[in-house]
Design a protein that fits this description.
- The chain has about 375 residues and is an alpha/beta fold.
- Helices cover about 40% and strands about 20% of the residues.
- It contains ten helices and 13 strands.
- The chain has a six-stranded mixed β-sheet with strand order 8-7-6-9-12-13, with helices on both faces.
- Helix 4 crosses helix 6 and helix 8 packs parallel to helix 9.
- The two termini are about 45 Å apart.
- About 5% of the residues have low confidence.
């Protein structure tokens, strides 16, 4: 038996090229600059002065040229400003997935296993005798031929209906997910950057679903004073605004999006750091940032109850620890019969990933 093998550590050994090393840093900085390539490169220049990323053989100018040559960067013809490309947007999502969820392999189609035998997508080891109505592609010919040989011998080989064996398969449930992201001003308040971890988690989840569970759907809803949908490709550019927190608008839009999905399995993930402070009544905004306003809170609780009736569970990831906020989240979660996690920024991705993956192991009728 071969155990662990130890080799001499060489601190200078690195399988990545200089371009790949700098690309990793560039992709990280794009998260913090909301996709602003010029600002990210400016930050890299400042960091290079301190940490000496580049060498005489390979400088920042070489790196920029390689970014353009490899399709990560383009110049605006009008003003010469740098812009990232679709390839960069996808690379940021992949980096987020690797960082938060680890390296996950692609699989065929959706993979929400319900462990319910039937005409599903994934074979399991169990077989059973043929029954009227079974399809041809379900027949296990190896076992069926073996039965025919046992029952009638090799010389007089013939296959009858009672020789046929059916290979069982598991259904794979499909899920429609709406991810709500709070972009109110509090997400960058008091010098703490909460929006960047939230964006990373969102990009990682989108990359996970589109690669590992392509039969699933995911919609992204951002909410401040109002709520609106954004495309997956827009996530790197997401910024916090001078907004209050209109959780009601976010929930209403999320429910509307899920109503359009024919999939019976639906869920809402909500990432927020604050209490609901805003409503839109007619054309006017009703705002109150002081304490928990029951007029706002009750609307949230009512929507949680509506989602429960529609069998839409809501999982809330609260990245704040204020006791009165916890009380609101507990009330909201109890009304929906959903789940809540009071997650620190460094654990947000792990909490969301574990909750999402655990849903794949449930049977939803």
């Amino acid at each position: 038996m071969i155990g662990h093998r130890f080799f001499q550590f060489n601190p200078n050994s690195n399988s990545k090229s200089k371009f790949e090393q700098l690309l990793d840093i560039f992709m990280q900085l794009l998260n913090y600059t909301s996709g602003d390539a010029s600002e990210a490169l400016s930050w890299m220049n400042e960091l290079d002065k301190t940490y000496k990323f580049t060498t005489n053989e390979y400088g920042m100018g070489d790196f920029i040229e390689d970014l353009k040559a490899n399709g990560y960067l383009k110049e605006n013809e009008a003003d010469g400003a740098f812009q990232i490309t679709g390839k960069s947007e996808q690379a940021i999502r992949k980096k987020s997935l690797e960082e938060i969820f680890g390296k996950l392999k692609k699989t065929k189609q959706g993979n929400h296993q319900s462990f319910k035998p039937g005409q599903g997508d994934e074979l399991n080891p169990d077989t059973r005798p043929f029954q009227f109505g079974d399809m041809l592609e379900q027949i296990d010919f190896t076992e069926s031929i073996r039965n025919a040989q046992i029952n009638r011998g090799v010389e007089n080989f013939s296959m009858h209906e009672d020789d046929l064996q059916i290979r069982e398969s598991d259904f794979k449930t499909q899920t429609s997910t709406v991810l709500m992201i709070d972009i109110s001003h509090s997400m960058i308040l008091y010098g703490e950057d909460r929006i960047t971890p939230a964006k990373k988690v969102a990009m990682a989840l989108c990359e996970l679903i589109t690669t590992k569970y392509p039969k699933d759907t995911i919609d992204i809803v951002v909410f401040g004073n109002d709520a609106w949908s954004i495309e997956i490709k827009d996530l790197p550019y997401l910024k916090v605004g001078p907004y209050h927190t209109n959780t009601v608008a976010g929930l209403e839009l999320a429910m509307d999006l899920l109503r359009r999905r024919k999939n019976p399995n639906k869920q809402i993930f909500m990432i927020t750091d604050g209490k609901p402070t805003c409503l839109k009544i007619g054309g006017q905004y009703y705002k109150n940032s002081f304490g928990l306003d029951r007029k706002v809170v009750n609307r949230c609780i009512n929507l949680a109850a509506q989602c429960k009736k529609l069998k839409i569970p809501i999982t809330t990831f609260m990245i704040a620890t204020d006791p009165y906020l916890q009380k609101f989240v507990e009330e909201f979660t109890e009304m929906n019969n959903g789940k809540a996690f009071f997650a620190t920024l460094d654990k947000l991705g792990a909490f969301l990933f574990n909750d999402f993956e655990s849903g794949k192991r449930k049977t939803v009728y």
